[in-house]
Amino acid sequence: MISWMQRNNKYLVITIWVAVIAFIGAGAVNWGNMNFGSASNSVAKVGDIPIKNIKYSYSYNNLYLQYAQQAQQEGKVFDKETAKKMHLGKKVLDSLIQQTLLLNLAKEYGIITTDEEVGKEIVSYPAFQDKNGQFSKEIYDNFLNARGLKAKDFEAILKDEITVNKLLKLLNVKPLNFEKESIGSAFKVADKIDYQVLKYSDVNISLTDDELKQFWQKNKSKYLTPKKYSLELLWTYSKDVNLTDKEIEEFYNKNSFNYLDDKGNVKKLADVKKQVIKDLKLKKIKKLAAIARSRFKKGKIKAAETVLLTFGDKKLSTEIWKDIKNAKEGEYLKPKAVDVNFVTVHLKNIIKPKEMSFEEAKELVKKDLKKVKAKKKLNKLADELIKGGKFAESVNEYITPFEIVTFNSLTPQESFKAVKTIFNGNKDTGKVEIESGLFVYKIVDQKLKDSNKSVIDIDNQIAQLKNSELFGNLFNELSKRYKVISFAKDIQ
């Protein structure tokens, strides 16, 4: 998961603040109880402007769900534990402090946003429009209710965003001609390389039982049996729920803001009907599931099944496993959705991990020790290869750091890592650690060639560099001018 986050760093680095409209279709995330110190309705104060709890909560929800959606598209899992590890709460707070520094500056220079401008922004957004393209007050109200927001709070958040956008347009710095010439030349640097891929699978490693036992003895605390959970499950099924076409259409019309495409436009009912039916069925059985939990807890009904599962088992969702992880033995968890049903979990007991015996861990030990020895052997072979200077493969064309290159035997991700290392380094030879082994290379020639980057691309790149420097210095100065006080003690 950490490597996934590094590859998707565009979401980690929040340039200014978390956009309000960008994720208007997102649901709510319970981000937990924070200790807000003496200012119970604010997480921080910047100059004369407070950052309200509701604004922090809304911004956190947006970014959390952005990560979750991106992870889901890539077959990954993003949950609250992951968000905590990457300090998502702190990043959101920092970005809101940056936004509020700019709001103070805008206020000082008389830049304002009227209620009329906020209104125009809201009525123009497709998610709040009915099938005829007209603004629907009912859809807008449903959106606010679904997120526990009052209209005045959402509109205040949107007003701040519009105000800062106005200021940013005034601060936008365009590239100068000499900058285009000097920085643009960086896009033209190209290398021709020879290379060879050394794979772990090509190295013969023999291991004795004595070696395995010695390695296990030194590292046996790493080899643990998985934690297991004894659970009783009570299911509330939706299979008997019958829906009419009229019910489905009415539910869709009231909640259409939840069914958006990548551009923020509402999808047609025909395209999302399956999801709409699922959501409506879950809504109908949610109360039944809550009643069933109460009876289950009092012993009036029995569990449908008793299971012994390791953490993360696909039988239950990521959200349910997160709840189980934080629960105490004997606890009856609140019902949660699994596909089109609800399940209530009774955590009977937890079987804690213990050190594996040598026989239990033997295959894992063998795999780890084999890789350790193979890695050492590959590095020795790589050093000899670099010293000898003869490589098995060549790239006939000159490559640049901005082109997509795929080397033989490497995945696109490994090829990207290799190219990045080549152009970030200052030596003409080197080695890159990849999943399957080592990529060893030698730069045999270098020249400047015409870049495939358009003038617009280069202008954008230079503008980003200049704006990054400008805003870095600007925020330093603004934080001196406007005092920043944080009331949040537990945000991570």
Briefly say what this structure is.
The protein is α+β, with helices and mostly antiparallel strands. The protein contains 16 helices and 11 strands.
Q: Mind explaining what this structure looks like?
A:
With about 500 residues, the protein is α+β, with helices and mostly antiparallel strands. The protein folds into three domains: about 1-170 and about 460-485, Triger factor/SurA peptide-binding fold; about 185-220 and about 360-450, Chitinase A, domain 3 (Roll); about 225-350, Roll (Chitinase A, domain 3). It is built from 16 helices and eleven strands. It has helices at about 1-5, 10, 55-75, 80-85, 90-110, 115-125, 135-145, 150-170, 175-185, 210-220, 245-255, 270-295, 320-325, 360-390, 410-425, 455-480; strands at about 40-45, 50, 190-200, 230-235, 305-310, 335-340, 340-350, 395, 430-435, 435-450, 485. Strands 8-3-10-9 form a four-stranded antiparallel beta sheet. Strands 5-4-7-6 form a four-stranded antiparallel beta sheet. A three-stranded antiparallel beta sheet has the order 2-1-11. Helix 6 crosses helix 8 (about 150-170) and helix 11 (about 245-255) crosses helix 12 (about 270-295). The chain is globular, with a radius of gyration of 28 Å. Mean pLDDT is about 80; it is low at about 1-15 and about 30-40.
